[in-house]
Structure formats: structure tokens, C-alpha cells
Amino acid sequence: MRAIFSLLYKEISYHRVYPLDLVSLAISPFFIVAPFVFVAKAHAENLQLSVSLGLIAWYWLSMFFWGVGYGVRDEMEEGVIESLLATPASVIELLAAKAIDTLLINLYITIALVILLWLLAGVSFHLNWIKFFLLFMASNFALASLSFVYAAFVLVARQASFAGNLFQEAVGILSGMTAPVSVLPKAVRWLSMLIPLTYAIEGARKVAVGQFPYSEMAILFAFGGVLLLSGVLLVKKAEHYVRLTGTTGEY
After folding, report:
1. H or E element, residue 125
2. Is the pTM of this model over 0.85?
3. Where are the alpha helices (DSSP H) in the chain?
4. For 55-65, how does the pLDDT look when each residue is reduced to its tens digit (9 = 90+)?
């Protein structure tokens, strides 16, 4: 735990040293999300909230993929992985610190997006915020665990941005980011059921209509547990592989 907190301090110190990055994180997501929200508004006023929630949840996935999963490559580039492996600490602890940091960033981005979409796009977020926060935690647990699996792939492949972009975009479509899963072709709808983000988005839309997403949260915790165990095992194997091949500092 001491190593995780030390590594987390390193991540948080970065934000303190580069405060403009925090400003960018608060504003730039709006410019990605807003066009979809305005298109939804042009079709039907009541679609705005549904699309906004889908895109906010998708942004959680994006941040974990690039902050935790692909973040491993940044650490390889800076020589952190190479130095880390010479200490009792492990890559797992580094990923855990990055996951906690990304969780906090996702909370920050979500608050900023809700405020900006309300002020500038006219989206009314009539939500039970306690229910939404509980769903946020369950969703982020599952998505963080998924990013561990991607991190293992990045450790071995080193150049994995193309695969990450492709996966992220495909997941966005299949999970019902801007339209319900029910409108997808039946031939691919079963894939949606295998994606944690699907349940995060469905759960958020349930909260929007006053329901508590019991089943979605249970599925997200189940996904999180399985993916975390799988991710830890795969990262350990990947860590062993880069030790043997001497590629800890290559990218």
C-alpha cells in the first residue's frame, strides 16, 4: 500500500505542477460531447439527457484506457518501468495508483461536463445524485479493471495506440453510447452484453428515469472482479516477459 500511495502522490503532483492540464480536462471533453448532444436536441428534446449520459460514461472508459492502460507506455518512455522493476514495487502497484488518479479525474470531468452541458447546451440533469454516484463507482471499478487487461497488452506490444483507438470506438458504438443497444443489428447485439460500458450507460439512463440500477451495478461488480483478476494475472505475465526480453525501456 505504501508503494501505491507514493506512486499516487507522483501522479497527483503532476497535476499540481501542470495546472493548465486540469483546465483542459475540464473544458475539452465538452467540445467532444456537445456536437452529439446538439444533434440529439435537433431530433427530440428528451434525447439530450440520454445521449449526454451515454457520452459521459464513454468518457470514463476513454480516460481509463489512455490514463491507465496506455499510460504504461508513457512510463516506459520516461524510464519509470525500468526503475520500478529494480525495486520491490511492481507494475500492478503503478497501475493501481494510476487507476485511483483516473477515478478522481473522471469525477472531476463528470462534474465539469454536467455544469457545461447545463449552462451551454441546456441539458437538464434531473438525477438522484446519490444513485448516480454509486453507479459511477461501480462503473469505474469495472472499467479500471478492463484497463489492466489493456495495460498488459501495451507492455508486450509497446505500440498499441491503433488497437486502443479501434477498441474504444467499437465499444462506444456497441455499448449504446448515443443510441440504445436495442437499435443495433441482432447479429452484433450479443457483443454488447459482453461490454461493461453497456451496463454503465443503461444504469445511468435508469437513474435518469428515477430507477435504481440494481442489476446493472451487480453486473458491473461481477465484470470488475473477473477483469481485475484476469488483468492482474496478464500484467504479471507481461511483466515477466519484458524482464526476460529486456524491453522495459523500449517503446
Report:
1. none
2. yes
3. 2-17, 19-43, 47-64, 71-77, 80-84, 91-120, 129-157, 161-174, 186-192, 196-208, 214-245
4. 999 999 999 98
